[in-house]
From TrEMBL:
Gene source species: Solanum bulbocastanum
Single GO molecular function: GTPase activity
InterPro entries documented for this protein: Dynamin, Dynamin_GTPase, Dynamin_GTPase_CS, Dynamin_N, Dynamin_stalk, G_DYNAMIN_dom, GED, GED_dom
Domain Dynamin-type G: 31-299
Family indicated by similarity: Belongs to the TRAFAC class dynamin-like GTPase superfamily. Dynamin/Fzo/YdjA family.
The protein's name in its UniProt record: Dynamin-related protein 5A
Keyword Aminoacyl-tRNA synthetase: no
């Protein structure tokens, strides 16, 4: 069973090394799930003396005011033989055999974290003691509860200490060791008061009475020790610590334990309780109880660890891999991220993701509507037809048909179709640009690297702009082609005046009458409508070929060409991951390391023993 406490000791050591102190954090905490014993007591309650009696060594700082200003995680390891020694978590390769040096290092390490301002800190000090005179046990010594701030401390220190103590003992896995002096009324005990708040039924509280030998003559602590004054689930344990005179004389702790046993066995009031009194008995009881609690918590602990490992691995996977160190690795990483983005972009166009349908809407609705809004009737009004026909004839009127007039009327009408053609190109460009931004936001890897995200976005938009310019040229050329060469067959099929009984000997100026001009306007409008129908089909083909197809085929070609010319340092600037994400990944990786180590530790223990 002793390996159970050793297991928790190793897990706590791993927690301390990886920064898991059970504080409020966005990371899962293993510390809070581990069974612990927290030592609680007011100042001058004899808390430090109790701990030293259990250990059998003088090792805790002493003085007036608040001496313990950081939690001390004290792990006791029983060894069969050899010299006693201590090790600190922050000095893992240094052994302390002089326990006066241990006391000094606790004080110095406290000052390193809090300064000399008498402030407190929730970051624990980790201390292991190896000795043949201890039982396997882990205790957390918390700052002593106080009622007033001393000089050099903020007024909030009283509440700060209380909140820190409560943050430990309110956790259901925490066993409370409540230290109260017997020469004071239990009703005023700081330890009992705060323990009652978090454990009202006393199911996980051990009561310890100190200073029994200092009670007034004629009084004793029997009622308290028998649980009549304040009942707990576990029996109260009384201890007799060394007096201040003994401490000043450096009385040996082993001798002090012997005198403690003699006190309880020889004092009539306590003789019947002697077998369950004293610091040695306290250590054994706590060790045995801690073992049983650990054993009962193991299944739940295993379940928590396995579940948390899956959660941590999932989030690490979402955050992506850390940055490669060599230039080749960085280039490969950037190319893979770009391919992922390009794949997302293509999925939008191909209908796997939404957005590509907007391009069809441009061709099926916006373009036809824009062409329909062109005011050909106004362009081919009687006055405008007369004006252009007469201007085209110049000083000599046309003889049979006003060919130049026809051309001018047709060209002036077809040229107006450039507006809808350009608008279609720009509308598709805007949609493609929007899809690029969507694809970038959907590419998880790009969220890691702000600079790469900006570069890829800029490169993609620049490519779209080049494609738009080329597409616009090609699309406008379609319109210009219609202007530059008219379809002759259309006009050959038009009825002639002579066929309708017209008289060719009439004055040429009769041909400028309204009926004649109206027929010209009607012929031109029919031709323009034919061209309009042709462009309605050919413009989408040109746009898709020059923009959509090219975007799918070569969106990042220029970017890849420039990328191949960059050196490792330049590639590194593109992979300047958001510091918050880097820190998050590092923290998650450390926490995952902790949980995997915990999983391995638990699996290595033979529970059947």
């Amino acid at each position: 069973m002793e390996n159970l406490i050793a297991l928790v000791n190793r897990l706590q050591r791993a927690c301390t090394a990886l920064g898991d102190h059970g504080e409020e954090s966005s990371l899962p905490t293993l510390w809070d799930a581990l069974p612990t014993i927290a030592v609680v007591g007011g100042q001058s309650s004899g808390k430090s003396s109790v701990l030293e009696s259990i250990v059998g060594k003088d090792f805790l700082p002493r003085g007036s005011g608040i001496v313990t200003r950081r939690p001390l995680v004290l792990q006791l390891h029983r060894i069969e033989e050899g010299r006693e020694y201590a090790e600190f978590g922050h000095l893992p390769r240094k052994r302390f055999t002089d326990f006066a040096a241990v006391r000094k290092e606790i004080a110095d390490e406290t000052d390193r974290e809090t300064g000399r301002s008498k402030q407190i800190s929730s970051v624990p000090i980790y201390l292991s003691i190896y000795s043949p005179n201890v039982v396997n046990l882990t205790l957390i010594d918390l700052p002593g509860l106080t009622k007033v701030a001393v000089e050099g401390q903020p007024d909030s220190i009283v509440l700060d200490i209380e909140n820190m103590v409560r943050s430990y003992i309110e956790k259901p896995n925490c066993i409370i060791l409540a230290i109260s002096p017997a020469n004071q009324d239990l009703a005023t005990s700081d330890a009992i008061k705060i323990s009652r708040e978090v454990d009202p039924k006393g199911e996980r509280t051990f009561g310890v009475l100190t200073k029994i030998d200092l009670m007034d003559k004629g009084t004793d602590a029997v009622d308290m020790l028998e649980g009549k004054s304040y009942k707990l689930q576990f029996p109260w344990i009384g201890v007799v610590n060394r007096s201040q005179a003994d401490i000043n004389k450096n009385v040996d702790m082993i001798a002090a334990r012997r005198r403690e046993r003699e006190y309880f066995s020889s004092t009539p009031e306590y003789r019947h309780l002697a077998n369950r009194m004293g610091s040695e008995h306290l250590g054994k009881v706590l060790s045995k109880h801690l073992e049983s609690v650990i054993k009962s918590r193991i299944p739940g602990l295993q379940s928590l660890i396995n579940k948390t490992i899956v959660e941590l691995e999932t989030e690490l996977s979402r955050l992506g891999k850390p940055i490669a160190t060599d230039a080749g690795g960085k280039l490969y990483m950037i190319m893979e991220i770009c391919r992922s983005f390009d794949g997302n972009f293509k999925e939008h166009l191909d209908g796997v993701r939404p957005g590509g349908d907007k391009i069809y809407y441009v061709f099926d609705n916006q373009l036809p509507a824009a062409l329909k809004r062109l005011q050909f009737d106004k362009q081919l009004s009687m006055d405008n037809v007369r004006k252009l026909i007469t201007e085209a004839d110049g000083y000599q009127p046309h003889l049979i048909a006003p060919e130049q007039g026809y051309r001018r009327l047709i060209e002036s009408s077809i040229v107006s179709m450039k507006g809808p053609a350009e608008a279609a190109v720009d509308a598709v460009h805007a949609i493609l640009k929007e899809l690029i931004h969507k694809a970038i936001s959907e590419t998880a890897e790009l969220k890691q690297y702000p600079s790469l995200r900006v570069e890829v976005s800029n490169a993609a938009v620049e490519s779209l702009e080049r494609m738009r310019d080329e597409s616009k040229k090609a699309t406008l050329q379609l319109v210009e082609m219609e202007c530059s060469y008219l379809t002759v067959d259309f006009f050959r099929k038009l009825p002639q005046d002579i066929e309708k009984g017209g008289n060719p000997t009439h004055s040429i100026f009769d041909r400028y009458n309204d009926s004649y001009l109206r027929r010209i306007g009607s012929n031109v409008l029919s031709y323009v409508n034919m061209v309009c129908a042709t462009l309605r089909n050919s413009i989408p083909k040109s746009v898709v070929y020059g923009q959509v197809r090219e975007a799918k085929r070569s969106l990042l070609d220029h970017f890849f060409t420039d990328l191949g010319k960059k050196e490792g340092k330049q590639l590194g600037t593109l992979l300047d991951e958001d510091p918050a994400i880097m820190q998050r990944r590092l923290s998650l990786a450390k926490r995952l390391e902790l949980y995997r180590a915990a999983q391995a530790e638990i699996d290595s223990v033979a529970w059947s023993k």
